[in-house]
UniProtKB/TrEMBL annotation:
Protein name: Transcriptional regulator MraZ
Keyword Transcription regulation: yes
Localization annotation: Cytoplasm, Nucleoid
Record keyword Lipoprotein present: no
Annotated source species: Polaromonas vacuolata
GO biological process per UniProt: negative regulation of DNA-templated transcription initiation
Domain SpoVT-AbrB as annotated: residue spans: 42-85
Primary subcellular site in the record, as a coarse category: cytoplasm
Alphabetized InterPro entries for the sequence: MraZ, MraZ_C, MraZ_dom, MraZ_N, MraZ_sf, SpoVT-AbrB_dom, SpoVT-AbrB_sf
Top-rank taxon: Bacteria
Cellular component GO terms held in the UniProt record: cytoplasm; nucleoid
Keywords: Cytoplasm, DNA-binding, Repeat, Transcription, Transcription regulation
MF GO annotations: DNA-binding transcription factor activity; transcription cis-regulatory region binding
Length: 107
C-alpha cells in the first residue's frame, strides 16, 4: 500500500508491488523526490480474518481520506479514494477533452 500523488492510496498484491517498486527504483535521479513519495510512504499490510485491510491514520490523512471512500480496480492494483475528492477529480476530468491515446481506441 502506498500514497499516490493525486490523493489516493494504491493497494498492490505483493507480486505487483515488487514490479512497481522495481520500476520506480530504476528511475533516474531527476525523479528522486517522486521515488521518495512512492517508496517512502509504502507499507506492508495484512488482511484480517474477515478480509479487511487496515489503512493507517497517516496514509488516510495525507491522502485526504475521511469516511466515505471509493475503491477502484485498476488492473494490477486498486486505488482507494476519498469519495468527495474522487467525485471532484472525475468531474474535472470529464470537462476536458479525452486524451489523444483514446481517439482511435475502440470500445
Amino acid at each position: 500500500m502506498t500514497k499516490h500523488p493525486h490523493g489516493c492510496i494504491m493497494i498492490f498484491p505483493r507480486n505487483e508491488w515488487e514490479k512497481f517498486r522495481d520500476r520506480i527504483a530504476s528511475l533516474p535521479m531527476q525523479a528522486q523526490w517522486w521515488k521518495r513519495i512512492f517508496l517512502g510512504n509504502a507499507m506492508d499490510v495484512d488482511m484480517d480474518a474477515t478480509g479487511r485491510v487496515l489503512v493507517s491514520p497517516e496514509l488516510r490523512k495525507t491522502s485526504g481520506i475521511s469516511k466515505e471512500t471509493v475503491l477502484l480496480g485498476m488492473g494490477s492494483y486498486f486505488e482507494l479514494w476519498d469519495a468527495d475528492i474522487y467525485a471532484a477529480q472525475e468531474a474535472e476530468q470529464m470537462k476536458a477533452e479525452m486524451p489523444d491515446v483514446f481517439k482511435d481506441f475502440s470500445f
